[in-house]
Amino acid sequence: MHSTTLSGTSAESASCLQWGLIRNITPCFGARLVQEGNRLYFLADRAEFNGSFSDDETLRLDQAFPLIMKQLERMLTTGELDPRSQHSVTLHHNGLTYEADTLGSHGYVYIAIYPQSAVTR
Known about the structure:
This protein has one helix at residues 55-78; strands spanning 2-4, 16-18, 28-36, 39-41, 47-50, 89-93, 96-101, 108-115. It has 121 residues and is of the alpha+beta class. This is Mu phage lytic protein YfjZ. InterPro entries: Antitoxin_CbeA, CbeA_sf.
C-alpha cells in the first residue's frame, strides 16, 4: 500500500491509503477487489478517490461499475486476468478508462478508474 495525501504527494502522516493501481492521474478511483475463484467482491473500506470527478463522471462510474465487475470476472474465467501473474488489462466504457491487474497477488484484483479526458489534461 502506498500512503498519499489527496493531492497525490507522499506523506508519512497521510490519512488516505492508495488501495488501487497507482496512477499519476487526477481524478482517479482506486480499489483492491477481493477475489474468490472467479468472483470479485468490492469492499468500500479498500477503495479511495484521488481528486474530484464531475457529477456526470460520477454518474457514469456508478452506472458502469457493476458491468465492469462482471467483465473482470469473465476475464478471470478465461484466464485473461490471472491471479498468479501480473498482467494489466484496460477497458474503455462511456468516456472512462478501467485498468485492472492482479499483480500476482493470489486473491486480489487492483483497479484504477479515471476519465479518458484526464490523460490528456
